[in-house]
Design goal:
The chain has 50 residues and is mostly helical. The protein has helices at 3-11, 19-49. The N and C termini lie far apart (40 Å).
């Protein structure tokens, strides 16, 4: 991750050098990935049916 992005997260209170913070960050990224995949599936299904 670029240093400027890490600095932004640190200003927001998320220190990726802290294992608990890093775990929270990773969980958030995984949740976002899952949501994006669900949205893509939903859109493809609508296109197929529409």
């Amino acid at each position: 991750m670029p240093q400027r992005d890490r600095a932004l997260l640190l200003r927001l209170g998320l220190d990726l050098d802290n294992p608990a913070h890093a775990e929270l960050f990773v969980e958030g990224v995984r949740a976002a990935d899952d949501d994006i995949a669900d949205q893509v599936r939903w859109e493809r299904e609508r296109e197929r049916l529409g």
